Amino acid sequence: MPLFEPNPQALRSGTKRTPAPDRVPELQARGTPRRLREELAEFLGPEKVLSKISDLVRYASDASPYRFVPQVVVVAEDIDDISTILSYAHGKGREVVFRAAGTSLNGQAQGEDILVDVRRHWAGVEVLDGGARARIRPGTTVVRANAALAPYGRVLGPDPASAIACTIGGVVANNASGMTAGTTRNSYRTVASLTFVLPSGTVVDTADPAADEELAHAEPRLCAELMALKAEIEADGELTDRIRAKYAIKNTNGYRLDAFLDGATPVSILRGLMVGSEGTFGFISEVVFDTLPLDREVSSALLFFPSLPAAAEAVPLFNAAGALAVELMDGNTLRASVSVAGVPADWAELPRETAALLVEFRAPDAAAREGYERAAAEVLAGLDLVAPVASVENAFTTDPKRIAGYWKARKAFVTAVGGSRPSGTTLITEDFAVPPARLAEACEALLDLQSRHGFDAAVAGHAAHGNLHFLLAFDAGDPTDVERYAAFMDEFCKLTVERFDGSLKAEHATGRNIAPFLELEWGTRATDLMWRVKEAIDPDGVLAPRIVLDRDPHAHLRGLKTIPTVERIADPCIECGFCEPTCPSHDLTTTPRQRIVLRREMMRQSDGSPVETRLLESYGHDAVDTCAGDSTCKLACPVGIDTGALMKEFRHERHTSREERIAALAAKNFRAVEASARLAVAAADRIGDRVLESVTGLARRAVSTDLVPEWLPEIPGAAARRLPRTHRPAAVAVYYPACVNRIFGSPDGGRGPSLPEAVVAVSARAGKPVWIPDDVAGTCCATIWHSKGYERGNEVMANRIVEAAWGWTAGGTLPLVVDASSCTLGIAHEVVPYLTKDNRALHAEMTVVDSLVWAADELLPRLDVRRRVGSAVVHPTCSMRHLGDEEKLTELARACAEEVVVPIDAGCCAFAGDRGMLHPELTASATAREAAEVTARPFDAHLSANRMCEIGMDRATGRSYGSVLLALEHATRP
Question: Tell me, what's the pLDDT at 705?
Fold first, then answer.
């Protein structure tokens, strides 16, 4: 064992707790049963079979209130794997559930036997016919697909609020729609063709002209049964009328029986049935969408009303005026949204009865937009709007930032409200639709029902389409509270069906919580037909049992998950999964959601249980060590949960007092540490990469892989011993070269100026000279200690840099320009919690400016660009995202290159200081998709603004990345 290997048991909570009723039983502590694991590993390869108890637990939760622990998780790479899994399940009498993003709200992504991950290896977009169509793989997020379509002025029809995380496979399988899709732009109406694998293993491409002939040969019984069902349905005029009426409003409850009316052949019928089938009919391996125009002329307003019914009454007026979206938010939703960055703080003071409509018009040109605005003005003139707080404007705007803020608040509905629920409670998200003309009446009835059952729910929805969502919080571990929820659901479902003839699921698909009520909505005849369809396609019941069809009237109460209280920073998490696509380790070990899910399972267990012990053994590496700590999860989370910060806290908890003392000593003597590091890098040039790789490899095995970095060939040579000479009297800013730029040299091996030389030169060239203090050596932004959880060292360096910067900037009168984005973030924000009271006051008086902002705002307007390269690709860093500097990087790059490309898959490189040297596999995984995009074509320049991130991208791509400020200096050099 390495000398300084962390003790996994250091993260035991140590608190006395009552085991939760839904805890993983001790018999499952060893994970997947041996025989099941070995058989699947033999067929698929051991690397595709996840069998540890920590693997099973982290896949057991999705965004729903349910939790089912699978027996095994399989990571499928291709259709051959899918066919093998299905064949194995048939032969062994087992069940299979497919899981992609896990953003489903009704438990569709959970299984109790074989769970198949179809996200990791299933991403990709091919734009067809100039953007008119797109071929998309099922693991691709909606946001990623739309990013590929945007240059063509096209967009997908479905636009769910979870677009940042939800994947195309799930969108189609649930017929998810969203803000604007309604009944005309959803998957059922916009999918051109599908490729899918039936439970038997037969692969069907509905676009293939020979598809029906091939299906008839492979599945003659299925073809005959589908055509017989079609004839039976079409012969029943009353049933046919009922089916058409049910889909006149949004409806995803049950199977799409209208597929039998719309399809003429078995393949075309299957194409319709697969949409909204929730993984119960087969695996969708590819989708071709007919895309829609991306109208770029937008006018939006957030309008406030005295009550929910008053807002609902205005909806038909905006529909008639041509609004594409009319979104409803009640007072609880609006008040909870203050936790979302950018939402006005005074919304917290809105009266409980207040409601709002987010109304949006979109047009292809300005003239059409202005026409919509005139129609909207006429509607506004007849409304009795309210302005209960100062920030309310009740006016239309075309400002993109303001519109984005409105939508950010609306899309955060589930997470913002869920995050504000009482600790320890489970969140239920309901979704129903009524005829739009009866929306106001439905709002009144819903409020009354909630009140009678003791729920103070939050309500929001796609009001233009009569589609409402509401959230309920209750204690799933309290039988009395579960009974209250059950009584509410019984009455709610009867109200929706019997009074409004509505849909019990408008866009979230049936799932586990509405399956028992399917017959209530559809009646016996139609429900029996759905059972027959399932038996025809999946006669052995292999795929996703109990997710759409379930004869148990209490099925919606089975598997409800408790939500034990965890660390304060993570406790608001509702396990929505929005954080996962942005996480650097999401294809390697765990995601932010999974880190929290695993922690919650530890808290469900009795202290010291075998399950807790096994989870802790894996948690160190899988959760704590391979977290990049970049906190991009905080940016993706609508309520700003920073799982990276939690992992840093856990790193601190694992440190011994001796390790903390050593880290603090290194901070106190950082001048010597910095000089030694520079000398070591200089010596490396003479020793050679191969020797250093061997030496560091031995040291890592002897000491710790999380303390000793691995030497990488991409590490540049040493920086010059002396920084450029500058003069203080004429300086308009203090320039602080980050320690990484004082240790490592330029990317071209010294043939050009160093970064400090370039910054000094280009600043002087623009008439904005800077001064480098003589005593910067030995100072640092403190990120080295902060990222590793060394609190004492962090405190030492945080206070040192602020005290030094206060003197350098003459008490804050000059700005402090920092030449590495992560260091800017560290000095500007991350040091603050570790400062003394006096130093916090000094910090508040200082202005810390990232070099990108300095160059773009202060230098570029005063410079003459004399030469440009043809093309440049940029790598925006996670620190730039936190600082809001991303646009400055592209602005500077455009001054230096004729063409600038920001990769669609650009994300955190996970190099994270030295974490990419401690865990090179983390950077390799995090950068794989961006690297593939970058290396698909040549570029003349590869630009960023953080030395360690540049090294990480060098390693990922085999290309040489450098600071955009070096490029700017070259482009403007006389």
Answer: 60
Over residues 361-381, the pLDDT tens digits come to 999 999 999 999 999 999 999
Question: Per residue in 602-618, is it b (16+ CB within 10 Å) or e — as a string?
Answer: bbbbeeebbbbbbbbeb
Quick one: tokens of 454?
Answer: 């003791």
In angstroms, rounded to a whole number, what is the distance separating the alpha carbons of residues 790 and 659? 8
- 143-147, 218-222, 377-381, 658-662: range with lowest mean pLDDT: 658-662
Q: What distance in Å separates the CA atoms of residue 63 and residue 55, rounded to the nearest whole number?
A: 17
Assigned token pair, 186: 């959803």
Regarding beta strands 133-136 and 283-290, do their DSSP bridges make them parallel or antiparallel, or are they unpaired?
antiparallel
Task: Give the pLDDT of residue 70.
Answer: 98
Amino acid at 314: A
Which pairs from 861-864 meet CB under 8 Å and 24+ separation? 862/766, 862/767, 862/768, 863/762, 863/765, 863/766, 863/895, 863/968, 863/972, 864/972
d(CA 890, CA 869): 14
Please count the CA atoms within 13 angstroms of the CA of 803 that sit on its side-chain side.
12
User: CA-to-CA distance for 327 and 594, rounded, in angstroms?
Assistant: 31
Say if CB 132 and CB 154 are below 8 A apart.
yes
Q: Higher confidence at residue 13 or residue 722?
A: 722
Beta carbons within 8 Å of 229's beta carbon, 6+ residues apart: 260, 529, 532, 533, 536
Please report where in the chains the tokens 């925006």 appear, as a residue: 876
| Cα–Cα dist 768/762, whole Å | 9
SS3 114: strand
CA dihedral (127, 132, 136, 138) in degrees, to 10, reads 160
Q: Please tell me the distance from the alpha carbon of residue 859 to that of residue 819, in angstroms, as a whole number.
A: 14
Helix residue ranges, H only, 625-754: 632-636, 643-654, 657-668, 670-687, 689-702, 739-743
d(CA 280, CA 537): 9
Question: Confidence class of residue 2 from pLDDT cuts 50, 70 and 90?
Answer: very low
pLDDT, tens digit, 9 for 90 and up, residues 695-738: 556 655 655 565 556 666 777 888 888 999 999 999 999 999 99
Evaluate if residue 581 carries a pLDDT over 50.
yes
pLDDT(851) > 80: yes
Tokens encoding 874: 């940029």
SS percent in the chain: helix, strand, coil, step 5: 50, 15, 40
Contacts of 874 (CB under 8 A, 6+ apart): 889, 890, 893, 900, 901, 902, 906, 942, 943, 944, 964
Reported pTM: 0.95
Contact 572, 600 (CB under 8 A): no
Please compute, for residue 77, the number of CA atoms within 13 A of its CA located in the half-sphere on the CB side. 6
- pLDDT at 691 (0 to 100): 61
652: phi then psi, degrees, rounded to nearest 5: -65, -45
SS3 at position 287:
strand
User: Tell me, what DSSP letter sits at residue 458?
Assistant: E
Nearest 5°: the CA angle 780, 918, 632 is: 70
Give dist(CA 508, CA 658) in Å, integer: 53
User: What's the pLDDT score for residue 673?
Assistant: 86
Q: Give the integer Cα–Cα distance in Å for 409 and 391.
A: 14
| Residue 836: pLDDT over 90 | yes
Provide the residue count of the chain.
Answer: 974
- Between helix 211-218 and helix 220-234 the angle, nearest 10°, is 110
User: Has residue 509 got a pLDDT over 50?
Assistant: yes
**Cα–Cα distance measured from residue 375 to residue 692, given in angstroms and rounded to the nearest whole number:** 71
d(CA 616, CA 52): 12
- Read off φ and ψ for residue 52, nearest 5 degrees: -65, 155
Query: Of 123, 220, 85, nearest to 587 (Cα)?
Result: 123
The answer to whether 621 touches 585, Cβ cutoff 8 Å, is no
Given this model, what pLDDT does residue 340 score?
85
For residues 99 and 68, give the distance between their C-alpha atoms in angstroms, rounded to a whole number. Answer: 13
Find out whether 243 and 165 touch, Cβ atoms under 8 Å. no
Residue 835 has pLDDT above 90, yes or no: yes
